[in-house]
Please model this.
Amino acid sequence: MSVDSVDMHRSWQEEELSQMVKGGALFPMLSDPGGRIGALYGVYDLKQGVDQRGRFFIDPEGVIQSIEILPDSLGRNIGEALRQLRALQHHQATGDYMPCGWEPGKPTLSREEERGGIWKKWKARHAY
Amino acid sequence: MSVTVGKQAPDFTADAFDQGRTRKVRLADYRGRWVMLFFYSADFSTV
Model:
């Protein structure tokens, strides 16, 4: 979503995105004229007149589970976003907790383990 | 309404360009699915 019009999204898709990946963007490209929705989510930059680089994961109940807002100078890390999504989905499916440095395939913590004695299972080397 | 982790995401409706056609997208229509909602500064930018 950006403050651009739907026609601008179409031009971008046809002229550039479709050259970068087959079919271009496969998700809806939303138009946010005036940054109304960006302002609702706290990411509208009034001075520049654009939406900031904000990313929200919203769960199946409509609840926000993760927020990231980055400055112009720093691009997103899609791997990190997917890691968070997988962790959030795993938690909702199993109730398990994903400790610092967790990646898919690494050990998770049960609710009891998460509440006390984490040191028995988790070491600093697991953080990175 | 405060936008923060653990709170309901504010609903909205927006015009969208979706794979060759124009349509309205409402956040509430995605209930039951995970959504990645992301904002960027401008088309023809580094997103």
